[in-house]
Design goal:
The protein is an alpha/beta fold and about 350 residues long. The protein has twelve helices and 16 strands.
């Protein structure tokens, strides 16, 4: 039985607290959050000790693992503290928003022999698993080009999260796309160019990018175009609009999870409800559970790490290159300075 703490009790923290609570292999031991309302909810829902100081929770409670679901830029202190104590971490994406901090997390995990897994759950969603199978079989030939987009309704940066001004749609969304590109193809990025727009959200008092597009050149000559933004109208039938395409020398693969195979029309709205995570016999089931169970396998020594921290480090360095290109207007060669993966 893996004893779990949850750090951060927002949308994802509450979701994984439920998954942990329902798992026959894990036990929710404690929850930490800076929000008094969240702590009160955790206490009432699960009857576990709650803390407004995550370090205090890690020192007082008998923990084997923690799930870290704080905002992007606050991952590092909790990840490092847990790993230094030999506590395994299931860490939300992106790993951090700073390459040096990402390197610190990787080094701490190695030094302490602790398991660290990035919560890149799309790797375990059935549509992407099918695409991965086709690529691994060679059905599509050599990868020539990748085209991907992941856009959100404007609800996300204006209402769903309170810290949108401290991140960008690239950190928040493109991290998923770049991880999928790496996992699907195994190709490392060489050079990056990017452009972004700040117009709609700054006018609403949220000082961040509306949309970002990046061009990535990969080893072997493949190229990828990645688009992320979060100003789609709230009338969109789904909160996210995800597309991923792989063009190969002998074929092509296309994934579109926007509609989720279900359409519901009511007097209030037309929606595409998610089927990637559903309730079965009173318990959540789906791709979020898959990565969780594989993480448990790794913690218990029953299987490999499903998403190693080293993958997160490459992801952060690529995103850092995207932001360097955004800030400097640099063309493709200059952004390479941020990648620095060679020799790892």
């Amino acid at each position: 039985m893996v004893r779990f703490g949850v750090i951060g009790f927002g949308i994802m923290g509450r979701l994984y607290a439920r998954i942990i609570h329902e798992s026959p292999r894990a036990r929710l031991v404690a929850v930490a959050s800076k929000s008094a309302a969240s702590l009160d909810l955790a206490r009432k829902t699960y009857g576990v000790p709650v803390y407004d100081d995550a370090l205090q929770m890690m020192d007082r409670e008998p923990l084997d693992a923690v799930y870290i679901a704080t905002p992007d830029f606050l991952h590092t202190p909790f990840a490092v503290a847990a790993l230094e104590r030999g506590i395994a971490i299931l860490l939300e994406k992106p790993m951090t928003t700073d390459p040096d901090e990402a390197r610190q997390i990787v080094d701490t995990a190695r030094r302490n022999g602790a398991v660290g897994t990035l919560r890149f759950g799309n790797r375990f969603a059935p549509p992407f698993l099918r695409l991965k199978e086709a690529l691994d079989r060679g059905d599509l030939g050599e990868v020539v080009a990748l085209n991907a987009r992941l856009n959100d309704r404007i609800y996300v940066p204006t209402q769903m999260i309170s810290w949108a001004q401290d991140t960008t749609p690239a950190w928040f969304l493109m991290s998923h796309l770049l991880d999928l590109a790496w996992w699907l193809t195994g190709l490392k990025p060489l050079r990056v160019a990017a452009r972004g727009v700040r117009r709609v959200l700054p006018a609403l008092g949220v000082d961040t990018y509306d949309a970002i597009q990046a061009l990535v050149e990969y080893e072997g000559g493949a190229i990828g175009t990645f688009e992320t933004g979060w100003i789609l109208p709230n009338t969109m039938p789904n909160i996210v609009d995800p597309k991923f395409e792989v063009i190969g020398s002998r074929g092509a693969g296309f994934v579109d999870t926007h509609e989720q195979m279900v359409r519901l029309a009511t007097a209030e709205a037309f929606t595409f409800p998610s089927t990637l995570s559903v309730e079965v016999a009173g318990r959540l089931q789906g791709y979020l559970n898959h990565i969780f169970n594989l993480f448990l396998d790794a913690v218990e020594g029953l299987g490999p790490n499903p998403v190693p921290l080293e993958d997160g480090l490459l992801n952060v360095r690529t995103l850092a290159a995207v932001h360097r290109a955004l800030e400097t207007g640099a063309l493709i060669p200059e952004a390479r300075k941020s990648l620095q993966w060679q020799g790892e």
